[in-house]
Amino acid sequence: MKAVRGPELPAILAALATLAAGPALAQQWYGEAGQGLHSARIERGGDSLGVSCNIGSAVLPDSVSISLGGTPVDGRTRLEFDDRRGGVNLMLRGGIFQAVDPVSDELFAITVRLLRGGNVVKVMTATGETATFPLAGSSRALGPCGQQPPETAPTDAPSLAPSEPEGAVPGLSPIAAGANLG
C-alpha cells in the first residue's frame, strides 16, 4: 500500500471528514448576507431549497430556489408543511420563484413565514418528484427574510377568527394557502 502525501492529502482528509459527519452536516440550514441580500439554504444529497431576500439591494427581487437531483425545478411546485399546516404553490422557472409584484410578494412572505416553523417541508413537483427537508434551524438561517421593517410592522399580531379552520395559519387566505388552484 502506498502512503498518500503531498497536495492530495488535504483533499482526502476533507472527504473523509465529510463522510464521517454523515447526512447531518448536509441537512443543516445555513444563512449568509452581503451586498443587500440575505440568503438561507439547505441541501440534502442532490436536492436543495433556498431563499434569498432583499435587505437593501434595489436590483434583485426576493426569491425561492429549488433543485431536485441537482436539476433546477421548472413549473408548478407545491410546498407542504408538516402534512397539516398548509402549503403554497409556486411557479418556478429555471428553479426560481421570484417575488416581482404584490401578489408574488405576499406569496413569498407566506412561504417564509411557514418555513420558519414546524418540523418539515415536503416539495412536490408537477412531474411527481418529491423531496423532504427538515425545518430545524431554518428560522435562524432565514434571519431578516420576510420580516417587516420596524416602521411598517403592525402593532397588533393577527389572531385566528372563530370561523377559520383548525390548523389554519393566521392571515393566510385559502388562495394563498394553495387551495385548489387547478
Structure write-up:
- The protein has helices at 8-21, 23-26, 102-115, 138-142; strands at residues 30-34, 37-44, 47-54, 62-68, 71-72, 75-81, 87-92, 96-99, 120-125, 130-134.
- The strands form 2 sheets. Strands 1, 2, 3, 4, 5 and 8 form a 6-stranded antiparallel sheet that branches.
- It has 4 helices and 10 strands.
- The chain starts with 7 loop residues before the first helix and ends in a 40-residue tail after the last helix.
- By secondary structure, the chain is an alpha+beta fold.
- The chain has a domain at 27-142: Immunoglobulin-like (Sandwich), CATH 2.60.40.
Brief digest:
The chain is an alpha+beta fold and 182 residues long. The chain has a domain at 27-142: Immunoglobulin-like (Sandwich).
Chart the SSEs and their pairings.
Blueprint: H1 8-21, H2 23-26, E1 30-34, E2 37-44, E3 47-54, E4 62-68, E5 71-72, E6 75-81, E7 87-92, E8 96-99, H3 102-115, E9 120-125, E10 130-134, H4 138-142
Antiparallel strand pairs: 1-2, 2-3, 3-4, 4-5, 4-8, 6-7, 6-9, 9-10
Stretches where pLDDT is under 50 for at least 5 consecutive residues are 1-26, 149-182
**Main β-sheet, in a few words?**
6 strands, antiparallel
Based on DSSP secondary structure assignment, what is the total number of beta strands? 10
The fraction of residues assigned to DSSP E strands is 25-35%
Highest CATH level, the class of the domain at 27-142: Mainly Beta
Please tell me what the overall shape is.
globular
Helix content: 10-25%
Order of helices and strands: HHEEEEEEEEHEEH
Please, how many helices? 4
**Head-to-tail CA distance between termini:** 62 Å
- What would you say the CATH architecture of the domain at 27-142 is? Sandwich
Return the structural class.
alpha+beta
Could you tell me the CATH topology label of the domain at 27-142.
Immunoglobulin-like
- Average pLDDT works out at 74
> Measured on Cα atoms, how large is the radius of gyration?
19 Å
